[in-house]
């Protein structure tokens, strides 16, 4: 630093010391406008000035200036990769913040990977930061809770005696990353409702963790999505207790040490301010920003900010820099979440905005109260999902079931008794293979084996026995839940169609007399693939008259045919074309076709070859198809409802396990 630069920094520092609380922030924003590096130098000098007040004998500004002049420009320091620190070998850098660095290390004695945290090299010489770092390790170690990563050891490097501590290595991503990823997919129309359920479950765990810390007389003071880690195997841990405050004791200079900015943060949202304004601006309670007294309700505000990010994809306040964000924290209300994301449940929006009240008196009294509010919403949603599932089960004309991997039905809707004649109790009392036609049992067992591995069943046909001794043909769609060891299935009675297809295959003459009365659409195509005849149901399903359909081919572009993923349906794989080419039938091919008015209709197509005199060369094709548009919509609603119910059940089990763990 040049002498001229130092004089300017010193002058601004002295002037800033005359300001109080939030006035200092406004002063620095105005005085250093356009020179971010100057502002960082002044703020760093203020940090050392405040630290020096309690225990340094030399003039504070002189000591701070000397330290500032020696600070490396990048602040990263040398890499430790490959070095040994006692029994720990450093493998790679996991991350770095404003005060510390975290390394992935190998514990050679226990043969496990651990996380090792140390001060950044340029901060290692500051006594107050060393004291705070050791204090962070001790506080974290004393908070024994599943939501707080356990500390293994607090030690010092053998070469320079700099402190470090080791803790469990949890592989995963931050809650901020997960929330932003969810909202990116939501906007693109690709999000799964279960993702939001998982995020809310993680939030409840965070609330419970903070409530535990409050019960130990500790507030976090820097709650944000980036300080919450979601492990790859369901772990949820609250990180970075370096700014934690013990409510029942005075911390003197440790709590009033100056402002240190994380230079790597963007837009002022993720800057961690330590001192009179300790915390991160975008998540900081107004009383923190003003340097006033704080308590558990300050952390409630931080939880509200995390909840805001979960339900909207962004923090409550954004700005061009830290000062701009702090100004909004102090003077503006957050935009209601429903204005940013219309799908936000009203109950969650109300809880979020209450937690973010400017006056702490109007917030929840503690993290436990916010937890109760969110869990109440979850319970209401769980019951609603179960009620909707019950209504869906009872009203559906299709045969719906929940079956176990053990080969028994667990739940059946009334359609089963209506179609087969057996009561639900009779069907659930025996393995469902007992009711399947002997010729179909091997194929059904093979399909169940696929479901057990997690694979879905899209189309599968088999025959079930009726109480009167007859059999009914079912077309199945099934989704497995490996964790619950359950299969959620939807069976459509296709007996009428199967019998009709048999009639058609037996005689073309009989085909012409039958198709006119069928519910399924029937069309007859010649050897060139052109339609020569159709029934009334075909006209109704595709929205065309017989005259409009006659002469069209299966690959006519006016069908605007699409596959289930929305992509164009390839000409060569269309059922009629494929059957004419190969002489083999096609079954249950799903295709979307557009009516003349643009309406999309989903159909399930079966095609059978009609052979010439030689019995080998296809002379035409008869195709039957049914309108499955409503079924497609129903299956999607069922999948979403099941996903929500699974997530809520998982959360309920997690909460019960958590409560048992705490009670034990």
What does this structure look like?
The chain is α+β, with helices and mostly antiparallel strands. It folds into 5 domains: 68 residues, no CATH class; 85 residues, Phosphorylase Kinase, domain 1, CATH 3.30.200; 201 residues, Transferase(Phosphotransferase), domain 1 (Orthogonal Bundle), CATH 1.10.510.10; 98 residues, PAS domain (Beta-Lactamase); 131 residues, 2-Layer Sandwich (Beta-Lactamase), CATH 3.30.450.20. Helices cover 43% and strands 20% of the residues. It has 23 helices and 21 strands. Helix 10 packs antiparallel against helix 13. About 8% of the residues have low confidence.
Q: Report the sheet-strand fraction.
A: 15-25%
Number of strands: 21
By CATH, the topology of the largest domain is Transferase(Phosphotransferase), domain 1
Low-confidence stretches: 48-75, 250-277
Total of helices = 23
Outline the fold blueprint.
Layout lengths: L2 H15 L3 H11 L4 H20 L4 H11 L13 E2 L2 E9 L3 E8 L4 E8 L7 H16 L8 E6 L6 E6 L3 E3 H13 L5 H23 L2 E2 L8 E4 L4 E3 L6 E2 L6 H4 L29 H4 L6 H17 L9 H10 L5 H4 L5 H10 L11 H29 L3 E6 L4 E4 L2 H6 L3 H6 L11 H12 L4 E9 L5 E11 L4 E8 L1 H12 L1 H7 L6 E6 L4 E4 L1 H7 L3 H4 L25 H8 L3 E9 L5 E12 L6 E10 L1 H35 L1
Antiparallel strand pairs: 1-2, 2-3, 3-4, 4-6, 5-6, 7-9, 8-11, 9-10, 12-13, 12-16, 14-15, 15-16, 17-18, 17-21, 19-20, 20-21
Helix pairs in contact: 1-3, 2-11, 3-4, 6-7, 6-10, 7-10, 7-14, 7-23, 10-13, 13-14, 14-23, 18-19
């Amino acid at each position: 630093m040049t002498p001229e630069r130092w004089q300017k920094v010193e002058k601004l520092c002295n002037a800033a010391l005359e300001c109080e609380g939030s006035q200092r922030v406004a002063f620095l924003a105005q005085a250093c406008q356009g020179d971010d590096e100057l502002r960082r130098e002044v703020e760093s000098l203020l940090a050392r000035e405040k630290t020096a007040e309690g225990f340094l004998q030399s003039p504070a500004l002189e000591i701070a200036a000397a330290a500032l002049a020696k600070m490396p420009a990048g602040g990263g320091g040398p890499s430790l990769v490959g070095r040994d620190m006692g029994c720990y070998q450093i493998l790679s850098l996991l991350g770095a913040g404003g005060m510390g660095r975290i390394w992935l290390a190998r514990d050679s004695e226990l043969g496990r990977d651990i996380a090792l945290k140390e001060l950044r090299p340029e901060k290692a010489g500051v006594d107050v930061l060393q004291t705070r770092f050791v204090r962070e390790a001790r506080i974290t170690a004393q908070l024994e809770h599943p939501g707080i990563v356990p500390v293994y050891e607090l030690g010092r490097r053998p070469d320079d005696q700099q402190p470090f501590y080791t803790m469990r290595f949890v592989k995963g991503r931050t809650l901020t990353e997960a929330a932003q990823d969810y909202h990116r997919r939501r906007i693109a129309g690709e999000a799964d409702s279960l993702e939001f359920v998982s995020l809310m479950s993680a939030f409840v765990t965070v609330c419970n963790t903070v409530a535990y810390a409050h019960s130990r007389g500790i507030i976090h003071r820097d709650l944000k999505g980036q300080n919450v880690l979601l492990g790859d195997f369901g772990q949820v841990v609250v990180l970075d207790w370096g700014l934690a405050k013990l409510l029942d004791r005075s911390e003197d200079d440790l709590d009033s040490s100056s402002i240190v900015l994380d230079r790597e943060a963007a837009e002022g949202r993720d800057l961690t301010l330590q001192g009179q304004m300790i915390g991160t601006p975008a998540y900081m309670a107004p009383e923190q920003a003003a340097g006033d007294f704080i308590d558990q309700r300050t952390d409630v505000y931080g939880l509200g900010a995390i909840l805001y990010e979960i339900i909207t994809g962004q923090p409550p306040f954004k700005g061009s820099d830290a000062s701009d964000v702090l100004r909004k924290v102090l003077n503006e209300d957050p935009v209601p979440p429903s204005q940013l994301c219309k799908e936000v449940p009203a109950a969650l929006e109300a809880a979020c905005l209450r937690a973010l009240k400017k006056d702490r008196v109007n917030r929840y009294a503690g993290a436990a109260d916010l937890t109760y509010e969110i869990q109440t919403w979850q319970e209401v949603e769980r019951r609603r999902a179960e009620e909707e599932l019950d209504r869906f089960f009872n009203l559906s004309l299709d045969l719906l079931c929940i079956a176990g991997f053990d080969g028994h039905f667990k739940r059946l809707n009334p359609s089963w008794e209506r179609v087969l004649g057996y009561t639900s109790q009779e069907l659930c009392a025996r393995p469902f293979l007992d009711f399947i036609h002997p010729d179909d049992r091997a194929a059904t067992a093979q399909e169940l084996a696929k479901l057990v591995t997690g694979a879905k069943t899209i189309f599968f046909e088999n025959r079930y026995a009726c109480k009167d001794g007859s059999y009914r043909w079912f077309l199945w769609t099934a989704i497995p839940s490996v964790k619950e060891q359950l299969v959620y299935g939807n069976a459509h009675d296709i007996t009428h169609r199967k019998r009709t297809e048999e009639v058609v295959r037996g005689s073309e003459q009989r085909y012409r007399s039958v198709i006119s009365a069928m519910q399924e659409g029937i069309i007859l195509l010649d050897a060139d693939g052109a339609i020569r005849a159709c029934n009334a149901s075909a006209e109704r399903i595709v929205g065309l008259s017989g005259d409009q359909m006659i002469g069209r081919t299966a690959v006519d572009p006016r069908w605007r045919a699409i596959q289930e993923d929305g992509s164009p349906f390839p000409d060569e794989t269309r059922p009629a074309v494929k059957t004419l080419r190969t002489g083999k039938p096609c079954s249950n091919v799903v295709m979307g076709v557009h009516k003349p008015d643009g309406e999309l209709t989903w159909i399930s197509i079966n095609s059978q070859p009609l052979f010439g005199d030689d019995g080998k060369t296809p002379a035409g094709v008869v195709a039957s198809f049914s309108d499955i548009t409503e079924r497609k919509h129903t299956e999607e609603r069922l999948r979403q409802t099941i996903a929500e119910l699974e997530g809520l059940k998982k959360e309920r089990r997690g909460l019960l396990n958590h409560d048992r763990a705490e009670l034990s």
